[in-house]
Write a structure and sequence with these properties.
This protein has no helices and 6 strands. It is mainly β. A 4-stranded mixed beta sheet has the order 2-3-5-6, with no helix packed on it. Strands 1-4 form a two-stranded antiparallel ribbon. Strand 2 and strand 3 form a beta hairpin.
């Protein structure tokens, strides 16, 4: 996150055993900003309540990981 970029609410979609999460950003076009790179954390609750047991893939902005629902 930077002073000129706002992280918007995540968008989630499920297709088969793959959950895709997109973390959209809002960048103002009328402002001049200085690039400041700062690490940040975000917690996202995965919608597992209605999933059948099995292995699933979660893709966040192109990065993949697997998780298991028991």
């Amino acid at each position: 996150s930077t002073p000129c970029v706002e992280l918007l609410p995540p968008a989630m979609s499920m297709a088969g055993n793959e959950l895709t999460i997109v973390l959209p950003l809002s960048r103002p076009t009328s402002e001049v900003c200085v690039l400041v790179l700062e690490p940040f954390d975000i917690d996202i609750t995965l919608p597992t309540a209605d999933l059948a047991p099995g292995e699933y893939t979660v893709v966040v902005n192109g990065e993949e990981a697997t998780y298991t629902v028991e």
